[in-house]
Structures are given as C-alpha cells and as structure tokens.
Design a protein that fits this description.
This protein is of the alpha+beta class. The protein folds into two domains: 37 residues, no CATH class; 107 residues, Glutaredoxin (3-Layer(aba) Sandwich), CATH 3.40.30. Helix content is 46%, strand content 15%. A four-stranded mixed β-sheet has the order 2-1-3-4, with helices on both faces. Strand 3 and strand 4 form a beta hairpin. The radius of gyration is 24 Å and the shape is elongated.
Length: 164
C-alpha cells in the first residue's frame, strides 16, 4: 500500500475509501428511488379502488367511505397510524363501509386525476384529512374535515369506542 507521506507509517485505506464511496452512492440511489416510489403506510383497512367502489356498495348494501389525504399532510399520517393501523378501528371500517383512499396530488404533480378532483369538488373538501360517507344511492350522508383524535374519528364513523 502507498504511504500517506514519506514520513508516515500509516497506509492509505483504499478499501475504506472505496466502501465509503459505494455506500454514499447506494444511499443516493435509495433516496432517489424513494422520492419517485414513496412507501405506503401500513394499513389494516381493506381499501377498495375507486373504480370498484360504487358497484361494491350496491352489491354489499354498504355506504362508501371516501378518505381524502395528501402525502404532505402530517395530521393524515398521524390518523393513519392511530386509526387505520388499529385492529379494532380497521375491523369496524371494513365491516361498515366500502373504504376508498384518495390522495390529493396537486402539490406534487400540479393536478389531480379527474375522478379524484371531481370527488374533492363534489364533497367540498377544503382540507386534509377529510372523510365523506356516501350512501348506496350516491348521496352524501356525512362529511368530516380534520383529525380530532381516535375517539372523535370513531364517533364520526359510527363505530363504538372500545370502552363503550
């Protein structure tokens, strides 16, 4: 190995430098991948694609629960962790609704898909997170905007709280 300077007894750690460069490159590639393919938060709710929701609602005689969120929305992430990752709440949602998760993409892409934008407009969604409960007949039954906590969300969803 080459010495750092003629008077030094230490060798230049080439292997360590190569490993550091490779790790830095891998981290950059990982960040770039995550930017274009963000990980989805884990959820116990059985989300249904928007295209299937109306037919399933009629077939199962259950209202549709539209959940409006955005990637940048901190209260959305907190609610998803507290409610959608909770076994009791998720079972209640899955039993009582056809749940549909809709993401606002205006900040990231400048525009929403037409179907998502139409629902945001139809339900006067002005903030995130928001819920709209729509009956089998297509008429909105209830609307909730914002996250007021676990208990408040279950009350809105007509799911008895675990202590009830």
């Amino acid at each position: 190995m080459r010495r750092v300077d003629p008077g030094s007894t230490r060798a230049l750690p080439r292997g360590l430098l190569v490993a550091a460069v490779l790790l830095l490159g891998a981290r950059g590639a990982s960040a770039l991948y995550e930017k274009h393919n963000p990980s989805q938060p884990w959820s116990l709710v059985a989300w249904v694609p928007l295209e299937q929701a109306e037919a399933l609602s009629r077939e199962r005689h259950l209202p549709i629960l539209y959940y409006f969120s955005a990637d940048w929305c901190s209260p959305c992430h907190i609610m998803e962790r507290d409610v959608f990752n909770d076994d009791y709440a998720a079972r209640g949602i899955n039993a009582r609704y056809i749940p549909v998760k809709l993401k606002d993409r205006r900040e990231e892409e400048g525009v929403n898909p037409p179907a998502v934008q139409a629902l945001i407009k139809a339900h006067s969604v002005s903030g995130f997170p928001s819920f709209a409960v729509v009956g089998v007949d297509g008429k909105r039954l209830r609307l909730k905007q914002g996250y007021g906590g676990y208990t408040s969300t279950l009350q809105f969803l007509l799911i008895p709280t675990p202590s009830d």
